[in-house]
């Protein structure tokens, strides 16, 4: 692969450490593969031409592009945004899980629960937050309170994602 430079030779600082292939700035949009799986083992979303995927990693929000460094990231509750080559985007809310970036520009997301963001109602989320707050503030057993706090974390992340 040749980069479009005056000398028509690849730039040494744009060589991938993982493939030993020269890369050009205009070619960083190469294909990434994405498979989003739910706990039922079903593919919730599958594609092979995303430009970028933004994920809610525990270490912070993270954008994954083609030729990203291989890694495994724990995901916190939050929004996964898939930016497609066509310029459109898809958004999913995940309750948590793991993202695995492979050396060949493949990204796999394994989530306990993942749903398209448009399937949620703002009113229903607000109502569930109110209920969970009542329980979390002492309206139940220790286990009920712990579960309500986890539910609150997920619901508040979902509410923030919907804005």
Give an overview of the whole structure.
The protein has 163 residues and is an alpha+beta fold. It has two domains: 30-118, Sandwich (ATP Synthase, domain 1); 120-161. It is 21% helix and 36% strand. It has two helices and nine strands. It has helices at residues 122-136, 142-161; strands spanning 32-37, 43-57, 60-65, 71-75, 78-84, 89-94, 97-101, 106-111, 114-116. Strands 1, 2, 3, 4, 5, 6, 7, 8 and 9 form a nine-stranded mixed beta sheet that branches. Strand 1 and strand 2 (43-57) form a beta hairpin. Residues 1-34 have low confidence and may be disordered.
Provide a brief overview of the structure:
The chain has 163 residues and is an alpha+beta fold. It contains two helices and nine strands, in the order βββββββββαα.
Order of helices and strands: EEEEEEEEEHH
The CATH superfamily title of the largest domain: F0F1 ATP synthase delta/epsilon subunit, N-terminal
The CATH C-level class name of the largest domain? Mainly Beta
Strand percent estimate: 35-45%
Write the layout of secondary structure elements.
Blueprint: E1 32-37, E2 43-57, E3 60-65, E4 71-75, E5 78-84, E6 89-94, E7 97-101, E8 106-111, E9 114-116, H1 122-136, H2 142-161
Parallel strand pairs: 1-8
Antiparallel strand pairs: 1-2, 2-3, 2-5, 4-7, 5-6, 6-9, 7-8
Name the descriptors.
163 residues, alpha+beta, ATP Synthase, domain 1, 2 domains, nine-stranded mixed beta sheet, elongated, disordered N terminus
């Amino acid at each position: 692969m040749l980069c479009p430079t005056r000398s028509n030779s690849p730039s040494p600082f744009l060589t991938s450490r993982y493939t030993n292939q020269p890369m050009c700035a205009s070619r960083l949009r190469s294909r990434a593969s994405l498979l989003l799986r739910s706990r039922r083992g079903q593919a919730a979303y599958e594609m092979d031409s995303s430009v970028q995927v933004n994920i809610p990693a525990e270490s912070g929000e993270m954008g994954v592009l083609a030729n990203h460094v291989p890694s495994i990231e724990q995901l916190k509750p939050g929004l996964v945004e898939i930016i497609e080559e066509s310029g459109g985007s898809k958004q999913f809310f995940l309750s948590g899980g793991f993202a695995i970036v492979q050396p060949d520009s493949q990204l796999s997301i394994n989530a306990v629960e993942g749903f398209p963001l448009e399937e949620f109602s703002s009113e229903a989320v607000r109502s569930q937050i109110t209920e969970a707050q009542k329980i979390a503030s002492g309206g139940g057993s220790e286990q009920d309170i712990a579960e309500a706090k986890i539910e609150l974390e997920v619901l508040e992340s979902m509410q923030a994602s919907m804005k």
